[in-house]
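Throughout our pipeline, every protein is held as a single compact record rather than as scattered files. The record that follows is passed on verbatim for readers who wish to inspect the format.
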Amino acid sequence: FHQACSPFIQTARCYARAVRRKRKDIPSHLDDLPPTMLKKDYANVPIINSVDDVVKRLLSLEMASQKEKMKIKTQQLVEKVRRSPNDNGSFEVQVAMLTAKIRTYEEHLQRHPKDKNNRRRMLMDIDRRRKLLAYLRRVRYDTFENTCKQLNIQYTLPPPYSRRITKRWVVKKAFCLKVFQEMRKLKAPERLKRRREWQARARAAKE
């Protein structure tokens, strides 16, 4: 004889099942780095070619951390836009360094969308990069175009300034216009007197 379960027991049985969501494979801007590339600190060491393959693997990007990969990626972006081999602080180099940081923040926030601290830092870096690009666009437009092209940045113009029109603002503007017109009327005789004196001096100089 099978005894039917109560609705409460049936609900309890179906309740505590853990639901695991599959993490999406988020593409990274560090994926194009080859794993056999050496780390930044060991790339120019002269004896690196004579060491064992195991040591080379330990010093390569295959065993590197995220921070070490970021150094190489930042260096690659800087090499695309720098003016000379010794250029480490120009506006283009600063834009390249900020671009690498912003892309890292974007990937992190796709995995952890509730991380407000890193979101705030990303927005601050985006604002800094926007100001640098606006300066380059205003002063050196060819450099601005080359920087956006090399770093794959889509620059959008800021929206034009628009002020919300309120009743108080309309009254204030009308009052200021009225004051300006009254002051012009009061200063009109003085301006006319100065103009006549200037015309008289000009005639005397011609004679």
Q: What stands out?
A: The first helix runs from residue 7 to 13. The helical segments are 7-13, 53-58, 66-81, 91-111, 116-139, 141-151, 167-206. The mean pLDDT is 82. Residues 197 and 203 are 10 Å apart (CA to CA).
